[in-house]
């Protein structure tokens, strides 16, 4: 298996301080990683490197075998699918759902008289169907609920048939039903052997879909633990990660965590 993402001793420094510090982490083909850690731990910073939008201050980062700094990122970007709140904010609310997905094929956020191939439209419709959005293809993006919008973003991220899929808090802001619907769909994607390698940032272990194989735990910009999820996502590690006593449970390939009661 070759590495889809390889960071060696990566630090990012801004305003005199490190955002992330000496991160060594690799993601191989077929792996599905969840990145957890408290607010400000550096999760989004790592995704920005993985999506080629941020270069390390020191250390080396290779995305799909290409070292950042010595490759044309514009050739690399279509090979990486990304869904995040900041990207969603840039999508035009008046655009039709189908076009929101279609424009990804051309690395754009809005239609500009480009002529799409019929095969592109078929793929966009297929992906929207996979994400349960067939009934919404003619709707304007801005009229969708938060959960519907998240599903469209994931369809869009998959449009270029990427080799690496990055999801920054895909379940944030969803109600229980919306979260469970999304987590089930991501679980189905994770189980698909031809789906891309996946890295998902999450604040809650309850959002980890079944089929996720590895976890990276960050605290204050550093790696606290990284490895296969079954042996790494322990009560001890999660407690150290979030700085309070937590108990982690796994049941039917899903995870939950709760804090220990305060002593009376
Ligand atoms: N341009 C910048 N200049 C200075 N500090 C920054 C800059 N960008 C991010 N930071 C800081 O870097 C740290 C890591 O930010 P990052 O967004 O990666 O964390 P995160 O783990 O994704 O947090 P959250 O869970 O709150 O989204 C934070 O403390 C943030 O304030």
Q: Can you put this structure into words, describing what you see?
A:
The chain is 29% helix and 29% strand. It has 264 residues and is α/β, with parallel strands linked by helices. A 6-stranded mixed beta sheet has the order 6-7-8-3-9-10, sandwiched between helices. It is globular. The structure holds adenosine-5'-triphosphate. Adenosine-5'-triphosphate is lined by residues 14-15, 19, 37, 39-45. Residues 5-245 form the ABC transporter domain. Keywords: ATP-binding, Nucleotide-binding. GO terms for molecular function: ATP binding. This is ABC transporter ATP-binding protein.
Features:
264 residues; AAA+_ATPase; binds adenosine-5'-triphosphate; nucleotide-binding; ABC transporter ATP-binding protein; alpha/beta; 9 helices
Helix residue percentage: 25-40%
CATH architecture call: 3-Layer(aba) Sandwich
Parts with pLDDT < 50 across at least 5 consecutive residues? none
The number of helical elements comes to 9
Query: What gyration radius follows from the Cα positions, in whole Å?
Result: 19 Å
**Could you say which overall geometry the principal axes of the C-alpha atoms support?**
globular
Pfam families: ABC_tran
Organism: Streptodolium elevatio
InterPro entries: AAA+_ATPase, ABC_transporter-like_ATP-bd, P-loop_NTPase
GO molecular function: ATP binding
Set down the secondary structure blueprint.
Elements: E1 3-14, E2 17-28, E3 32-36, H1 43-50, E4 58-63, E5 66-67, H2 73-76, E6 80-83, H3 85-89, H4 97-102, H5 118-130, H6 146-158, E7 164-168, H7 176-191, E8 197-201, E9 214-219, E10 222-228, H8 229-232, H9 235-242, E11 246-251, E12 254-259
Parallel strand pairs: 3-8, 3-9, 6-7, 7-8
Antiparallel strand pairs: 1-2, 1-4, 4-5, 9-10, 11-12
Helix pairs in contact: 5-6
Bound molecules: adenosine-5'-triphosphate.
Adenosine-5'-triphosphate is lined by residues 14-15, 19, 37, 39-45.
